[in-house]
Amino acid sequence: MNLIENIREAVKSILANKLRTILTAAIIAIGITSLVGILTAIDGIQNSINDSFSNLGSNTFVIEDKREERGKKSGVSQKSYSALTFDEVSQFVDNYNVGEVTALYTTVTRNAEVKYGSEVTNPNFSVLGGDINYLYVEGYDVEEGRSISAFEHQNGSNVVLIGNEVLSTLFKENERAVNKSISFLGSKFKIVGVLAKQGTEGGRADRAVVVPLTVARRLAKNRSLNYRVGVSVKNPTKMDHLMGEATGLMKAIRRDTPGSEDSFDIQEKKSLAERLGEITGYLRIGGFTIGFITLLGASIGLMNIMLVSVTERTREIGVRKAMGATPKRIRQQFLIESIVITQIGGFGGVILGFIVGNVISNLLADTFVVPWLWMLFGFLVGMIVGLLSGYLPAYKASKLDPIVSLRFE
Predict the structure, then answer these.
(1) Structural domain count of the chain
(2) What membrane topology does the annotation report for this chain (predicted)?
(3) Of 248, 269, 290, which marks where a domain is finished?
(4) Is the pTM of this model over 0.70?
(5) Mean pLDDT, the chain, as a whole number?
(6) Do 48 and 113 fall into the same domain?
(7) Distance CA 175, CA 134 (A)
(8) In 3D, which of 130, 81, 138, 86 has the Cα closest to residue 105?
């Protein structure tokens, strides 16, 4: 018997036992579904995380005051550095001409009461001040109304953007806040826009009001502010290079001596996204392990069914051997049957895994993905399972004695 005949006989045998084939393929399909489904869902969640951090300005770096570390390091007291001044950060923004978007901003207070008519918030809301690029660099969107205009920034107009919690605290449900006036820190402001809800990671803006930077400096009066510079990087692969250029420019502005420690902090705002990426990596390993265990059970079930098939077809094997079939051809036939069954189950499992995975990721993260890698992986795993599960029954069939097999009832 040649290979074509073996394939024909294997397919004929599968069709002759449709119920057993369907049940066996279903076992494999369940295993592949769990594997592809879990990995697809994790990919969807990962994509959602990446999109969220892109919206939150994850491809940015920030220059801010040097954080003082208490105590001593290697027996030497830590040096303290002066805070970044408005003139220094303004000079940096004016001279950092690398084609990236820079923003200058500060926090006036984190303990403000915001008032609207008789409604008053708790004294734990923030007053933030930023320039024209602040919303873009931080990834904040205006849900209602508009952003603060360049004219209002330049002239220090008393206009304000409010966060989602400010809106829900001061205004009734479905009440329009735009063009209404609120007051805080002894001044009255006209609301020009409402910021979109940021959620857990960007929650600082939910409990804040945002005013032009010139107004923030006025509200601080004679009190010094801690200024920050945010730089949005279009191409993340240039992050290290651009941070290096920014460090050199700021050291020159601050007059830090060559080779000395930086008198400011510069850091990438991607650390949290990377940590969450590591968590999803662990989830992927866990999902793969669960899927592998499920497939292991499915492969054992397939092996058991194939062993039963060998026993049932002992007489058939004896006839084939009597007609000149070699042990190699017998093994080949049973391996082909096993692989075909697993590929039928694998195809169904991949389709179901794709659907189930996207349903889960859509419910949890509102995303849709086409996991080509995991789908191809599912087919490959199905073939490997077929080979491993079918080898022992095929080997057993090839070793049967033709005389004994012909006498089998």
Answers:
(1) 2
(2) Multi-pass membrane protein
(3) 269
(4) no
(5) 81
(6) no
(7) 27
(8) 130
> What domain range is 138 assigned to?
60-269
At a CB cut-off of 8 Å and minimum separation 6, what does 97 contact? Answer: none
Are 278 and 363 found together in one domain?
yes
Q: 133 and 179 in one domain?
A: yes
Q: How far apart are the first and last CA of the chain?
A: 25
Tell me: pLDDT of 109 over 50. yes
Based on the fold, state whether residues 206 and 116 are members of the same structural domain.
yes
Does residue 379 register a pLDDT over 50?
Answer: yes
Using a pLDDT cut of 90, give the percent of the chain over it. Answer: 33
Residue 283 shares a structural domain with residue 318: yes
Compute the distance between CA of residue 127 and CA of residue 109 in angstroms, rounded to an integer: 5
Question: How many contiguous H segments (helices) and E segments (strands) does the chain have?
Answer: 14, 14
Q: Looking at the structure, tell me whether residues 71 and 202 fall in a common domain.
A: yes
From 232, 247, 269, the end of a domain falls on 269
pLDDT in tens, 232-279: 888 877 888 999 999 999 999 999 888 788 889 998 875 555 666 667
10 Å Cβ neighbour count for 244?
11
pLDDT in tens, 188-207: 999 999 999 876 544 578 89
3-state secondary structure of 409: coil
Task: Answer for the pair 46, 177: CB distance below 8 angstroms, yes or no.
Answer: no
Beta-strand (E) ranges in 95-180? 101-112, 115-116, 119-120, 125-130, 142-145, 159-162
